[in-house]
Description:
The chain has helices at 3-24, 29-48. It is an all-alpha fold. The two termini are 13 Å apart.
Amino acid sequence: MNGLSTILIVVGFFLVGGIISFVKQKQPKGLIVLLSIGAAMCLVAGVLRLDVWS
């Protein structure tokens, strides 16, 4: 696991925590969807950068 993949995965989990917080605060759905897309992209990019695939 290199540094960039670790950072992407940590940021993805940070954004997931933000999603949970925003849902509890009853924030607008558009904001939650936007945050969800960003979290998913970070997590997928971090996992795909791992060297276990090759």
